[in-house]
Known about the structure:
The protein has helices spanning 13-24, 36-46, 60-74, 98-126, 146-165, 195-207; strands at 4-8, 28-33, 50-54, 79-82, 129-133, 171-177, 216-219. It has 6 helices and 7 strands. Helices cover 45% and strands 16% of the residues.
Amino acid sequence: MTKTLFITGASSGIGAATAKAAAEAGWNVALFARSTDKLEKLAGEIGDAALVLGGDVTKLDDVEAAVSKTVEKFGGLDAAFANAGLGLDTPGTVEGDPDEWRTMIDVNIMGLLYTARAAIPHLKTTKGHLVMTGSAAGRRHIPGSIYGATKWFVHGYAGNMAEEMKEWGGRVTVVAPGMVDTAFFSEPKPDKLQPEDVAGAVMHALQADPRCAVREVFLMPQN
Ligand SMILES: NC(=O)c1ccc[n+]([C@@H]2O[C@H](COP(=O)([O-])OP(=O)(O)OC[C@H]3O[C@@H](n4cnc5c(N)ncnc54)[C@H](OP(=O)(O)O)[C@@H]3O)[C@@H](O)[C@H]2O)c1
């Protein structure tokens, strides 16, 4: 039976590339983000296997409604990719803007938790898979990085959820890229990782034999 993947942050970068890779591998893909115009365009490229779900990951109701619609449309949920995330324009604890921190923490931490909360009851019925986008910045210390600290949360939570979910046959993967050439940065980064590289890592984890839990994939640009 065709498997179904719910993706947050599917309108751009890593999420959009993963949607394409999963659809190419024969999965149904549920595309969640705020920019429905971009989601519609992506869904147009993918075809019937794609479902557009506009919403804000910082709103639990939006995420729960989107996951319900995914299950209604495709008959179940095999995997969820908690990928939506953002950085800060102004770094630094003294120089930075606390309102900007709150927005980022809402997306990178609360949005990730909401995605897990909405998906897990459905993943339990399929012995499904939860994938989260961490970062190289969530594996090593970067001077003063508040963004990096949100990704340390992702790595810690992913490991804790891997221990919890294995009790019912569920798997958890944190994918941890270094710099990727996406809209996350205002300037193009052509010599760094491409979003397709990260999508390939996600698909490797999702397609691994059920005996093999790919707990973490760490990718760095070679240059
Ligand atoms: N690029 C890198 O170098 C890099 C490295 C390591 C980790 N990461 C992580 O990779 C993930 C994806 O980032 P990316 O590089 O692919 O950047 P991107 O192209 O800017 O994509 C970010 C995605 O997050 C979504 N998003 C942001 N706020 C949202 C909200 N409130 N509700 C729903 N969706 C929201 C955006 O969609 P809308 O704006 O349409 O809502 C967009 O689809 C993030 O978690 C990021 O921290 C990136």
